[in-house]
Amino acid sequence: MRVAQVREFGGPEVLVPAEAPDPVAGAGEVLVAVDHIDTLFVQAQIRAGAFGEFFDVKPPYVPAGGASGTVTATGPGVDPAWVGRRVAVAGQADSYAELMAVPAAHLSPVPDGIGLREAASLVHDGVTALALLDNTALKPDETVLITGASGGMGTLLVQFARALGARVVGVARGPEKTALVRELGADHVVDAADSGWPEGARAALGEGGADLVLDGVGGQLGLAAFPLTADGGRFSAHGAPAGTGFAAVDPDEARGRGITLLGIGDVQLTPERRTALLDRVLEEAAAGRLRSVIGAVFPLERAADAHRAIEERGLVGKVLLSAR
User: Fold this and answer.
1) In the chain, which end has fewer C-beta atoms inside a 10 angstrom radius, N or C?
2) Coil, strand, or helix at residue 179?
3) pLDDT of amino acid 50
4) What b/e sequence results for 137-167 when a residue is b if at least 16 CB atoms lie within 10 Å of its CB, and e otherwise?
5) What's the whole-number average pLDDT of the chain?
6) Distance of alpha carbon 312 from alpha carbon 197, whole angstroms
7) What confidence category does residue 68 fall into, taking pLDDT thresholds of 50, 70 and 90?
8) CA angle 96-99-103, nearest 5°?
9) Extended beta strands in the chain, E state
10) 305 CB-contact burial (10 Å; exposed 0-12 / middle 13-18 / buried 19+)
11) What is the DSSP letter of 96?
């Protein structure tokens, strides 16, 4: 089968087309013919050699992630009725591939009303977005500030927060991205390209600040968002695509203001939890209550171009791979 393989740590050019043996569905597993594959910024960072302390991967390897597709075979102990069903799966190893052997317990059926391309765009960002809102206990009538609001997860957080009845202030960069965030339902949007954006956000939030800050950017931008958190509020530093790490908030300052700090460790999910959350996300999308934003789709053999597009940040929405 065709795969995309990282031959060594480095730039996007190290992600190259390769051939690998076809997987076989073992006990409790199914074989999935992959349709579309989710790509994540963190996989581009791992490919470049970052986060070695968190991810034990060594080249050559096939990047992990999530995907959608159709079940073509079942292994021992699995109901053969799975064959022919459209499914999605998150947190899957070796997902940049035409075929995957997946535990049947980790599958989420893709309901009518949503395509496999859209399902793939939701497998990680949708799951993480729901987990964040569950963990931070966002309530109706609270105010939430979302940085990186035009990103794959940010666009979903805006929609979920609005559906919960929260007041949403989004932070995005540039007119196209801020327009998208506004279209998705944010009450106010500030442009991070403006050096004075924290003042604009403060005016939109009100003097008390945000009950919840969801920082999906990290670095200096995330650090600038922290003072906008209300005393007694919550600050989640779960993203670091800026390349400068998670927002380095002073825990003593947070403690002095009664602010609860959360991080990426708070959204490390068991496979069972991921599957349950993905079921919920797909149901919301199929019902028309959740819109996925897809910026570009690259064929599997051009995975390097997909990573390059992610790193250049020029696209609005998710970048996917097609294995068809």
Assistant:
1) C
2) helix
3) 85
4) ebeeebbbbbbbbbbbbbbbbbbbbbeeebb
5) 94
6) 22
7) very high
8) 100
9) 2-6, 15-19, 29-38, 65-74, 86-92, 99-103, 108-109, 143-147, 167-172, 188-191, 210-215, 229-237, 260-263, 294-299, 318-322
10) middle
11) S
